[in-house]
Write a structure and sequence with these properties.
Layout: H1 11-14, H2 27-39, E1 45-48, H3 55-75, E2 76-80, H4 87-99, E3 115-120, H5 127-139, E4 144-150, H6 158-161, E5 165-168, H7 174-188, E6 191-192, H8 194-204, H9 208-222, E7 225-226, H10 228-235, H11 240-252, H12 255-268, H13 272-285, H14 291-309, H15 314-329
Parallel strand pairs: 1-4, 1-5, 2-3, 3-4, 6-7
Helix pairs in contact: 4-5, 7-8, 8-9, 8-10, 9-10, 11-12, 11-15, 12-15, 13-14, 14-15
């Protein structure tokens, strides 16, 4: 079917919840913050959890409900800390905003006497910048509240974390994600069968933002009738047949077959980091691979993932994984001896 004309607006923004109570699958967070909104007494906040679970959405919704559209631009400053993460930003932009006194509120909204500074991806900030924030938080706590958003709470220094109320955002369950996707399909007039819906949930791994973006990409390319195959083609995941072919070649014990599979994978342009992630799930869930073999393979996958992060060559690293997987599946010694 030919692609249909679609709005240029991103669906992630179009269907972003506008109120805290509309955030999906974060009942404890929603309940606590709803009570906070009623009193207008907002502490410093630290939102952490996997991507696409509603952290930024919740922070923005709180600010909109506190200040309304008129005061939002003057009372709220949102910074992406992965872009502006140095100590100079803390000393200039953040300190300047935090130090400005607030004016009168508007009717119809709580409008508490403070501003809100949202630091998205705060775990990307340098340690020096985080340390510099400590004094800023203390000096301007009467007129400014800080909201830190991160994926890894362990990367936030303890002096900052201890000054905040912490809220953990959980990965979305499959049924929660499917309900939201079905709602979007209904609003946009799309046809998505159950297989395609399950595939979309599986490839998104609890990340609703990724699921919505993937769905919109599929609609732009293939039209309003979306199949499971089309979801896979736009999602960036590697087809199961590729992983099965690689494991089958390794199980054969023939290096030439494994070498050819690796060359084919590289030639097709599949990202090796994605191969490792899916291969891990494939191996762990396989009933035909013993626990010892799984342990040997997953250990090598972890080492290879670190090498790729450090900038190693994808082809050589995938060959290393294939060679070690072959040794494990054929019960050979872990390393070659000379």
């Amino acid at each position: 079917m030919a692609p249909v004309m679609q709005s240029t607006q991103q669906w992630v923004e179009k269907y972003r919840p506008r109120k805290v109570k509309d955030v999906a699958h974060q009942e404890e967070v929603v309940r606590t913050l709803t009570n906070t909104l009623e009193t207008g007494n907002l502490p410093h906040l630290l939102f952490y959890g996997p991507p696409g679970t509603g952290k930024t959405t919740t922070a923005l919704a709180i600010c909109h409900q506190l200040f309304g559209p008129e005061l939002y631009k003057t009372r709220v400053l949102e910074l992406n800390a992965s872009d502006d993460r140095g100590i100079n930003v803390v000393r200039t932009k953040i300190k300047d905003f935090a130090g400005v006194a607030v004016g009168a509120g508007v009717s119809g909204y709580p409008c508490p006497p403070f501003k809100v500074l949202i630091l998205d991806e705060a775990d990307s900030m340098t340690e020096d910048a985080q340390n510099a924030l400590r004094r800023t938080m203390e000096n301007y706590s009467k007129v400014t509240r800080f909201c830190f958003i991160c994926n890894y709470v362990s990367r936030i220094i303890e002096p900052l974390a201890s000054r905040c109320a912490k809220f953990r955002f959980k990965p979305l369950l499959e049924n929660v994600m499917q309900n939201r996707i079905q709602y979007i399909c209904q609003e946009e007039g799309l046809k998505l069968d159950q297989e395609a819906l399950s595939t979309l949930s599986r490839v998104s791994e609890g990340d609703l933002r990724r699921a919505i973006t993937c769905l919109q990409c599929a609609v732009r390319l293939y039209g309003s009738n979306i199949s499971s195959k089309e979801i896979i083609s736009v999602s960036g995941i590697v087809p199961d047949s590729v992983l099965e072919g690689l494991l089958k070649a390794c199980q054969s014990g023939q290096f030439d077959l494994a070498h050819q599979e690796v060359r084919d994978i590289i030639a097709e342009g599949h990202p090796v980091s994605q191969i490792l992630s899916q291969l891990f799930d494939f191996v762990v869930q396989s009933p035909n691979i013993s626990d010892i073999q799984k342990a040997r393979i997953t250990e090598r996958l972890a080492e290879t993932d670190k090498c790729l992060i450090d900038g190693a060559d994808e082809y050589l690293q995938l060959m290393d994984v294939a060679s070690n997987t072959m040794r494990a599946l054929c019960n050979q010694t872990q390393e070659c001896t000379y």
